[in-house]
Amino acid sequence: MAAAGSTPGAPGTPRVLRAMNDRAVLDLLVVHGPLTRTRIGELTGLSKPTTSQLLGRLEAAGLVHTTGSLSGRPGPNALLYEIDPGAGHVAALSADPTGITALVADITGTVLGRARVEAEAVAEDVRHRTAQLVAEAVDGALSRAGLTHDDLRAAVIGTPGAIDPHTGQLRYAPHLPGWHSRTLRDDLAAVLGTPVDIENDVNLAAVAEQYEGAAQDHDNYVLTWLDEGVGAAIVLGGTLLRGATGGAGEIGYMPLPGAPLAKDGPDGEGGGDGGFESLVAAAVVRDLAGPGATLAEALADGAVLAEVARRIATGIAAVVAVVDPELVVLSGAVAQAGGDKLRVHVEEELTGLALPRPQIRISELDGDPILTGALRSALTQARDQVFDTA
Fold it and tell me: Cys staple from 102: which of 118, 141, 347, 370, with CB 3.0 to 4.6 Å?
């Protein structure tokens, strides 16, 4: 029984201090990989006895294990400790108009299984089968990994649009009718057996850039997504800006000179054509070069490249004037096809404007940045659970 006036687990108590040290060491092992007891002590400032006790405690909890030893120095070989990859697993998913991709990874971030389910988002039967399609994709990835739903600690799904924090409903994604149920999050948690976060796909791409892309070491940046759809993620002071309804960054609807206004669709969700997206979306860029042109062919044309850069710079200028980022990352199929030549042209278009001058970079991430961001977000959630020894 706790002494009068004390609170079990209160800040400063031995239990909480132990948990803080445990988490610090686990985070070090995530970042650095296998480390010796001595090196862990050097990085944390903990004494040898404390470090030994801590590692013993984490090993008994199934959070770390030894993985060989470090030789080549005087004295006995030093044991190497690493995160036990079986301590937890996560699912990361990306939903798009043609299907759902899922991957499963262990707590270290190693991908163990991947699967994709093809399904046209506008097909009539998909409207009532969204949760089942998600489950099918995750089940495929789990099967390839030799795991079950019971192994999952977190799941994050990236979709166009955003979940309204007040209603729980997906907004700004009229082309994904099966995802608009108010109970979708609960439905998905029920079929997956773990809590599910539904996150805007461009926000997740920005998370990926911050972890391992062009936005590393930046706390104020904008990721501009230029693909079949157009959007942005805005990070200020290291915090993702979401807005009152989750719609911050929906710059595809932004009114600009030369573009028709994006009016509400039948569902009141801005489903009409217009705005910034009608100037720079992938289909529009291809059409600038004529029927049948690919993005690469279109942007290889100097006149098309210059026009697209001018349009992109106009949209970026509007965002920069409001949020003043230190960096703008151009991502998505249009940015990848245009590459550094597109970046240079966009910079030139911004030169001389009465605005702050952010750095402009093209994303260099390999693979699908939305899946990468979903994985990083899921790992953050799972580690907060699994690594909490308090």
Answer: 141
Which residues lie closer than 8 Å to 246 by C-beta, 6 or more apart? 162, 163, 164, 165, 171, 200
Residue 181 dihedral angles phi and psi, to the nearest 5°: -70, 140
pLDDT tens for 56-115 read 999 999 999 998 777 655 556 689 999 999 999 999 999 988 899 999 999 999 999 999
Beta bridge partners of 199: 158
How far, in Å, are 44, 89, 306 from residue 28 at the CA level?
9, 19, 46
Spatial separation of the C-alpha atoms in residues 238 and 220, rounded to whole Å: 6
Nearest to 156 by CA among 185, 177, 176: 185
Least Cα distance to 130 among 196, 71, 76 occurs for: 196
Q: Which residues of 12-30 are buried (b: 16+ CB within 10 A; e: fewer)?
A: eeeeeebbebbbbbbebbb
Q: Which of 225, 214, 269 is nearest to 246 (CA)?
A: 269
Tokens standing for residue 338? 């245009």
Phi, psi of 278, rounded to the nearest 5 degrees: -70, -5
